[in-house]
Protein 1
Amino acid sequence: MTFREFLSDRLGRVALLLLCLLLGGAFLLATGTQPGVLALLGIPLLLVFLGVQTADFLRQRNRLRELEAVLEGLDQKYLFAECAPAPGDLYERRLFDLCRRAGRAMAGAVSDARASQGEYREYVERWVHEVKTPVTAARLICRELDGETRRKLLAELSQIEAHIERALFYARAQSPERDCLLRQVDLGEIAARAIETHRSLLIQQGVRVETQGLDRPVYTDEKWAAFLLGQLLQNSARYRREEPVITLTARPLGKQTQLIIRDNGMGIPAWELSRVFDRGFTGSNGRTRGSSTGMGLYLCKKLAGFLELGLSIASEEGEGTTVTLTFPSREDLTEL
Amino acid sequence: MEKILIIEDDPAIREELALLLENEGYAPLPVTDFTDVPTQAADARPDLVLLDIGLPGRDGFSLCAALRKVTPAPVIFVTSRDSGLDEVRALSLGGDDYITKPYSIPVLLARIKAVLRRRGGGSEPADTLEAGGLRLSLTKGTVSANGRTAQLTRNEHQILACLMERAGKIVSRADLVETLWDSQIYIDDNTLSVNMTRLRGKLAELGLAGAIKTRRGMGYQL
């Protein structure tokens, strides 16, 4: 709060006072008071008024600064009214009372929302586990079918599984610390797991996958990393061109390890590249092909942030896309 | 024949799994009454236990600990719970492996075979395959016939092994690709053709030019 703001806020009061002084002065002059006496009366009055206003200004400014510091220091800002230092005057006390009541209602609403989000997450997880049982049974039953029908059905089942998996990880991404287990994993195992999960799609799309130097350890959560890689593989398979090839190359980068996923697919137009990680973003490729949810890469970004994985994307339209995953070194990993 | 105890409460999976294992040459023992599983396990004396976690009454974790006391058989958890914590818990309770549903059948069978072999129950895999006058060494990656030997690449080796395992039968190109992916060779149809040509070239040098026949529209046959 500046002095000017303060003054403009009290403009009415100042104007009234000046008006009273003028009228009073005019009256006294008219009734024969000498100008010297008038000045002797008027100037101290004006000074007292100014002094009171300045003191008011300083008090209010300090109080506001104090409250702002309190707010800055709070993690949950909506608890402000509970934590602020006790107010001095009656009017402020009443105001705080109102704020506190509003804050309590808000805190209640927040904790209700949290609880219902938690419940929903639990429901999604339970649902996912339940739906996996019939899918497993269906896979086993497929075995008795002849080659072509079996392959087609297995491909459809895989699609269902991919959607289920995404739903599960979406639910998990809300509070990732609950399922995350960071440990040493072989990068090759993560890749094998991701490829195995999406093999029906990859084979159906005629994709060839080449791997180079994947036999090195990384520190991460195997399932999450495999899910993340799986999203990238799915994208590469979906947005492919002729003779699709995906290469997975690992290389050390200081103490970190980089995994580079390169495809020779459609690529992403330059002006869309910065938005591919946004929630619900479907690029021109996704729109022309349909069935894009704009969720895959969004989830990747979110999970990568949690796993402290570096995730970057580069692409040239018509040439292909390269995604680079940088796994943190053991020392860099903050304990979870 | 190795006995495999199936502890799974979903009837469809239980029955299909039993059928699958029977076809693969195991003796499946599906559990249908979940009141006193450890006693049943002690009586059945299985060579391997497939254990679900979400069971009626008692969950798989505590069941595993109980099973450990009554039978030396290895336990493979087969479950739809796929959080890392569940897996660690399962393995620390004495589980030998942890497979999540939905699993692919080749993966499940491979893991069963591996666990049985680790426990010394299963037979060691043969080192050589023989069919159609060919002798394939699985560890060295060489093929020999008529006293001559040729070195094979990993891809060629897997293709030949797959054909030899089903000698006399027609193996479709799609099945071949699937089998190669099982062995973490992720090739496409075109690459298969290239590899097949090279493999035939090598076999021709061994004096078996027409060993692999093409069945138009159906696949290959050794």
Protein 2
Amino acid sequence: MIQPRFSNLPPGFRIQRETNTEEFFINMGPQHPSTHGALRLALRMDGETIVELVPHFGYIHRGMEKQAESMSYLQYIALSDRQDYLTAIQNNLGVVIALEKGMNVGVPEKGEYIRVMLQELGRIASHLVFYGCFGGDLGGQTCLLFGFKEREMIHDILEEVTGSRLTTNFFRPGGSRYDVPDTFIPRVKAFLDHLEDAMRDYERFLSKNIIVLERSIGIGVLSKEDAIAYGCSGPVLRASGVEFDVRRANPYSIYDQFDFDIPVFHNGDCYDRYKIRIAEIHESMKILRQCIDKFPKDGPWRSKEKPVRLPVGRYYSEIETAKGLYATYVVAATTGEKPYRIHTRGPSFPHIAALNKMVQGHKVSDLVTIMATLDPVIPEIDR
Amino acid sequence: MFVPSITNPVGDFVREMVPRLAEYLPASIQSDTLNSIVAFLVNALICVIAVCAVNIGSAPILIYMERKVCAHVQCRLGPMRLGWHGTIQTIADVLKMLFKEVYAPSGADKLMFYLAPLIVLIAPFIVCALIPFGRDLVVADVSMGIPLIIAVNGFGVLGILLGGWSSNNKYSLLGALRSGAQMISYEISFTMILLFVVMISGSTNLMSITLGQEGTISDWWIFKIPVLGIIAFILFFISSTAEMNRAPFDIAEAEQELTGGYHTEYNGTPFAMFYLAEYIALVTNSALATTCFLGGFLPPCIGVAFVDNYLNMVPGVVWFFAKVFFMIWCYMMVRWTFVRPRVDQLMDFEWKFLLPVNLVLLIAGAAYIVVCG
Amino acid sequence: MQENITLLQYFKRYFKRCITGPWSLMCGLSVSLKYFFDPRRIVTEQYPENRKTLRMHPRYRGRLEMIEDADGNNHCTACGMCERACPNASINVLSTKNIAGKKVLGRYVYHFASCTQCGLCVEACPFGAIRMNQDFEVATTDPNTLEMILNKKEGQG
């Protein structure tokens, strides 16, 4: 039996519970406001305290990796949009880098700048959704709208550049599908100035709020060892004190040319996971400003176009999406347009796997907070 | 017999008219007793209609207001389609709600399930009848007004507990249990604050509490006792928010956790009743705050005769509702700003913060009265 | 997370939170008041009213259409590259033979219902015969209208 938590009481004042209570099961999901999609969590509860949690996946399994076997590589780029729809543009890059390794093509400088800028815009968009969902799941619906307001502005920019708001399908081996329009740089600049103001308000709104502090500090602690053991990545891993970011550890594109910090927090609780994402928004803005300064005016934006045919071999790429490590493993058994096998390693799956470890002994309300700070996207887990 | 202490032009008119009309009846059944009983019943009917009109009429206005306030905080426009700036939208929504099929989940205790929304409605209706809306506008001017309000407020918990329990749904049950614990706890500090008001005003009658604040703004209970009044007002604001189950204390509904809490299984008219009760409670609590702290129907005189003359020309009902809507706006801003505390933190807050502060406040108020009063 | 703290520390923390707590809540309230009283921040667009001025970007991927001149001439050679590029078989290029025995476009059948607007067909077309238009109001009550034939007349190219 799990003792209730009275962490803020001195030892002599803690209530010792002696009575035996009956446990019961409760189903959270697949239709539930705070499971962020069709995820079912079976909870074993003692009153309002969670004893055990078992996640059930597969409610929106579409068999993407199997579908990929009968698709061409280009078609799989379009499919990768539909995995983690909040970081669609980053998933595109993950697939494309693996293909580039196989095709052995390089990307011109301007193309790399376009990639980095869109990556960081996508990261900000995803983290803004996190801000909204975190506040919303805690009960402040206003935060939800605040987060989505700025995210829509990013999507406006993405729409102008890529032709689509969410399912971008933009990057291609050797560069990207289009050059950016002339209005791109001024728009990003104006947006960054706006976001700077907005983030000041938003942090004032939520970061120091005592109810948020009470509800997130010390909740859902994931230790450094556990985070590594479960295979967590991205902000969740860095909030637990592990300084690991693919952009720094194994730089892809031209991330090694920018000056940015990898924020690391050490408590591994919900508040740290919140703070780290806010800090990452600021770091992304820093990268974007550097990009705007150094953006090459002319020059090619993609290398010479050639058919996407991979020689026999195994190709692996990993990138840092907003959620964490997104890796693509392509096996080409025959030289041609179609893969033998594509496997995707998404960041959300290990996070949900670690959920049971984090929620034990917490209340249902804490489960909602923890889920929000893990920021999972269910279509990416089920694929 | 049946002579009310407060006279009202409408009541007097009825009392005058009934004997006059009774003259047309056969002389054998004419009597003063009958006349006064009939007059009383007619007056009672008028009162019931008036209370219902205020309560049910204010709900659509409040829902519209809530939508607009919430929308503007969130950089949206809110309803804009039906009528001018969406004014008819709520009426359309209410109509939709009324025409929906009403059904209970299998395994639900049908009687309790349908009784619960009615019970929830009782408390705010009775409280509304006790509030003086103007100098001669009060339905029941009972001398034990505040104790009656405290007693009647308990009905809210009963309805919510019944609704949650009879739904045969674990989420509803959790919501109901949370709400039971929460409302019973916060009732204590709610009562304490009203006690403070009773103590400084020396009366439990809402009319005399209001009239005790006659004079300028500085005579309102919120300002009359320096610092303590404002603290008491803030504490009242907090505990009444919790009493109403409104965000940030809406852990009983907690959409993100319990998918709606005690009213998860309700739909159609019963759901509308829960909704109605929530908004009427908002009106009555704001009215109570206005009566107890903001001078009720008295105009905000500032002590300058020239201005005060104009302020006094405005009828008391207008001042009363202006203050009530200001209070409602405050409740709404709070609702759309703050996040929801956890259930155990809510209890901690009540028992470890609100209650001690309330006790200190009561002692300080008593000391103030002894020393200065 | 049960910490062992003395009673003194406990009360110190308690009173500190009594001060910082309300202050932090006031900070939050100031933001929502600022947003409430500033109508310039409203971002809502009144959609059907602004229909006249609403224009999509030229790159916007709406519905697939064939680039045709006024007489209905197009560049399609019925090579079928778009059909092969389509991930979900939304395009059927039905070819026919003209009098000279050359393979020409018969009917270009487009199943809009299964199209995900990825734009791979446009990219695959070697002749620039098709494009995505800026039509975003594509909802319909009649599913039959989702099956369309894009070319106006047969036997081009």
Protein 3
Amino acid sequence: MNHMQSSRPVIRVENLTQRFRVIHERPDTLRELFTKRFRATSNVENFEALKDVSFNVYHGEMLAVVGANGSGKSTLLKAISGVYRPSSGRVEVEGTLASLLELGAGFHPELTGRENILLNGLLLGFSRRQMREREKKIVEFSEIGDFIDVPVKQYSSGMYMRLAFSVATEVDPDVLVVDEILAVGDTPFQAKCFDRLENFRRAGKTILFVTHSMVQVLKYCDRAILLEHGRLLMDDTPTKVIELYSPAALESTASPVGA
Amino acid sequence: MVINRAYSSRKASKLKWEAKAAVVTMKELFWNLQKYRELIWALALKELTIRYKRSVLGFLWALLNPMLLMIVMSVVFSTIMAAGIHHYAIFILSALVPWMFFSQSLTYAVESIVGNADLIKKVSVPKIVFPVAAVLSNVINLMLSLIPLALIVLLLGHPFYWTWILLPIYIVALAIFTLGCSLFFATANVYYRDVAHIVQIVMNMWFYLTPILYTIEQIPARWRWLFKFNPIIFVLNDFRLSVYWGLLPTFWSVVASFLCAGLAFLIGYAFFRKHQSEFVFYV
């Protein structure tokens, strides 16, 4: 990735620490607040989901974020998406950003798919006009068909994901953040999604991508970062990262079966 | 279009906050409201459509509901409980309609942060859009309920005064006041869910302490000064003057309406703004 180092990074994460106050038995009601006042023990604990994480992502890069459950992957994506304010350190993102953090992020179950396209787009910071122009393409790509006018609470998780992915990619953001959700789609739709991500990358956009599929990391990503207990353990080529994180996966994908 | 986003730590941005004054805060507020106006509008309409979805009459309920209530009140107060006030029903409704807006908005808005937890945890969007949308959807409701109010006025043969055209001014004052209260209680409700219940009780007491069912003249003179501390009394009185009496308010009563509104908004917004970045950890 040396050739890319010369250009300005699109995402800059500097010494990012994300701390959560884990309050065991937080007083949720006033009664508890008053009764707990008299107890001497403080049950507030600081939990650091991310510890001093720094890295850059450049134009046209597809970066995989890998690590075990609870290693801080989702927290990292949320911090980059601006959902969390860093406890310390900095996160900078240049350009427009769309994120697919969880299934149907920003969908309202009572509204139809079509109504949710608009709402979701507006939440991502796009205008009504922009969304109306893209609506047809979004519906087309999602292959949801007539279900587009049905309240999304009646959708299957696959349909949810199709619509969410279609919206997030059709708005054509400069940075796309995807958290695992692609795992929900069926194989043909997954392939279609990756095709689109490839096109994105070729157009010079930046993709941040959490997955547990090492096959996907090897096949699609330029670079990978490995998180462990909130620390950035490694920032290198996919092969090198997988060698450390999950060497077994590397062996199994060496044969052409996995692809 | 390139937007630069930077999310920096509390420490780094604290210096900035100290250097820049409240002007920046207000600028930021208006910038957010301007940039997200379409979202606010969509969220407000969403509230309304969801409220009336799956009902046969749909949006008509927004008109029918207050209409039926007003008819019942007119019958009750003009025949059964005629209190010696001419057109007592209109006397009451002229202050009750804006009061109902206030109490309903607050009931909705106090839950607006907690109720949108799903969005707040997944999308980066200024949190203020949620209470603003909650109040806005009720403003739409209030404006719709002016239609049945006008019908009742005509039906009972009460004069339809030209002073009705001043109502938009009072609606603005009342909406700002309501938004201020909403921001305050919505923030508090994030930390302690009891707040939503307490608000209900407070609203009930407040209702009876406000001259809606009675006139301020009916209060013993030596207690009357106390009622001047009720911040909503001025704007409700402006409504009543327009609809029931057909009179212009005094200049000072309009000033007092907007002063109360501005003060409520400043307090509510300051509290909200101080805590908004923490909401995501508590909802």
